[in-house]
Amino acid sequence: MTRYTEKQKLAAVLAYRKGAGGLRATASAHDVGVDSLRAWIAAYEANGKAGLVAKRRTIYDLDFKLEVLRRMQDESLSCRQVAALFNIRRLDMVAEWSRLYVAHGAAALQPGWKWEQKRMSKPPSRRDDRDAVTNDQRGREELLRDLQQLRAENAYLKKVQALARTKSRSAPVKGR
């Protein structure tokens, strides 16, 4: 992995913002990856030159992580956008927080959570989890799957009813 100076990052971002070339052309001209340039542009737009400064590794607390996820949800932001907005060094970290939160709740965002889970014995089966969890505690994804299934069933029943009505209306016409 190549490290770039703030000058190199700024030069690439400013060249892109001038509009002389597209994202790929600018990345190629400055010998950087397209994804890196895209991240630098987002960081620059959110935080100016400070967004391009090399950041040290940071351990984020639970409240910060929850605020990032809340803002991402409320404003329908992508992981890249919210990482730039909060000046988070790695956008994949935000995606990981989101996955953990959806799957295991806020407790999974606590420092050290992964290590504790690895030391646990065999996790309970999916069936047991589903039986133990009430409707109020079910995850958003499970509720969306249920809603999709109910909509499909509803649409199927409507089609059957419409077909039955069509047959009952057309039956007397055939007898004439």
Automatic annotation (TrEMBL):
One of its GO terms (molecular function) is sequence-specific DNA binding. Residues 115-140 are annotated as: Disordered. It holds the Pfam family HTH_28. Residues 8-57, 64-114 form the Insertion element IS150 protein InsJ-like helix-turn-helix domain. Belongs to the IS150/IS1296 orfA family. PANTHER family: INSERTION ELEMENT IS150 PROTEIN INSJ (PTHR33795:SF1). This is Transposase. It comes from Pseudorhodoferax soli.
